[in-house]
Amino acid sequence: QDYTWEDHGYSLINRLYPDVGQLLDEKFQVVYNLTYNTIAMHCGVDTSVLRRAIWNYVHCVFGIRYDDYDYGEVNQLLERNLKIYIKTVA
User: Fold this and answer.
1) Mind giving me the DSSP string for 5-74?
2) Taking the model in full, what pTM does it have?
3) GO CC: one term (predicted)?
4) Per-residue pLDDT reduced to its tens digit, 19-44
């Protein structure tokens, strides 16, 4: 059976640590919705693959992993310095 943040993680965290679920969910939603469809000077770029990699990396930082996601994509798209930055701000 698949477990997801939305269906299972959020309610479990809130049961164990009240209010923490909301804080984590806000962080996750900012990452997931962060787009201007622009990379550097290029407009109209589909950034969904990059955003998905960042989304999954942020979840991974907080101990949440998805069985159906290829984490090789994270290593392919996110350079080491970006990972360090994400860990710092998350």
Assistant:
1) IIIIIHHHHHHHSTTHHHHHHHHHHHHHH---SEETTEES---HHHHHHHHHHHHHHTT---TTS-THHH
2) 0.67
3) nucleus
4) 899 998 998 788 777 778 888 889 99
